[in-house]
């Protein structure tokens, strides 16, 4: 199971997540989230990572000019909440709140009903979508080191995404919590 630590605002937290075994690091751009960083800060965070860690840019933008700034960072994937033209060389993760597959191009779906509030997705509904989806599904929303194992065993997603569940405060990650979260994910049998 893939693990994405999202809402990274500091290179030190990105390195701690990577060391703990995260598969992907997410940075938020062009958002009113307290975890949003400027493109220059995102570039610094990405530059600190090793070559095998995926770099995900998360944005609620619907502005093509802002998307161009996001793409200039060279992300592995972009996580978007609307349909914008993204080059085929960059994977698109589309966030959905209601379980309905989005319109437009996407390579994976992120189930997120919380929109940064930590509200959990209904696990039965999430499992149903995983079984129906033609693309990988990532589960997020309200996940913590204490509940991610139960949620992942019930849903069997391709991966999980966490932000507030491993923080001391918005954007400030807790290394122990990240490590425990990743260990809980790795302990799940295929």
UniProtKB/TrEMBL annotation:
GO molecular function, one term: phosphoribosylanthranilate isomerase activity
Reactions that this protein is recorded to catalyse: N-(5-phospho-beta-D-ribosyl)anthranilate = 1-(2-carboxyphenylamino)-1-deoxy-D-ribulose 5-phosphate
CDD domains (UniProt xref): PRAI
Keyword annotations: Amino-acid biosynthesis, Aromatic amino acid biosynthesis, Isomerase, Tryptophan biosynthesis
EC number in record: 5.3.1.24
Entry superkingdom: Archaea
Gene3D superfamilies on file: Aldolase class I
Signal peptide: none
GO BP term, example: L-tryptophan biosynthetic process
Metabolic or biological pathway, per its Swiss-Prot or TrEMBL entry: Amino-acid biosynthesis; L-tryptophan biosynthesis; L-tryptophan from chorismate: step 3/5
Start and end residues of each N-(5'phosphoribosyl) anthranilate isomerase (PRAI) domain: 3-182
EC main group: isomerase
Family: Belongs to the TrpF family.
Annotated protein name in UniProt: N-(5'-phosphoribosyl)anthranilate isomerase
Natural source organism: Methanofollis aquaemaris
């Amino acid at each position: 199971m893939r693990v994405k630590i999202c809402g990274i605002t500091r290179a030190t937290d990105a390195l701690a997540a990577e060391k703990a075994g995260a598969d992907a690091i997410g940075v938020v751009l062009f958002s009113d989230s307290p975890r949003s960083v400027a493109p220059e800060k995102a570039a610094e965070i990405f530059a600190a990572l090793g070559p095998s860690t995926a770099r995900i840019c998360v944005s609620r933008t619907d502005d093509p000019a802002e998307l161009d700034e996001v793409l200039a960072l060279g992300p592995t994937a972009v996580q978007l909440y609307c349909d914008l033209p993204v080059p085929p060389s960059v994977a698109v993760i589309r966030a959905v709140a209601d379980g309905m597959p989005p319109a437009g191009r996407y390579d994976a779906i992120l189930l997120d009903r919380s929109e940064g509030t930590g509200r959990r997705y209904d696990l039965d509904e999430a499992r149903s979508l995983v079984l129906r989806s033609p693309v990988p599904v990532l589960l997020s929303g309200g996940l913590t080191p204490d509940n991610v194992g139960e949620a992942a065993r019930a849903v069997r997603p391709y991966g999980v995404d966490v932000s507030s569940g491993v923080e001391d405060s918005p954007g400030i990650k807790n290394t122990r919590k990240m490590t425990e979260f990743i260990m809980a994910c790795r302990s799940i049998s295929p």
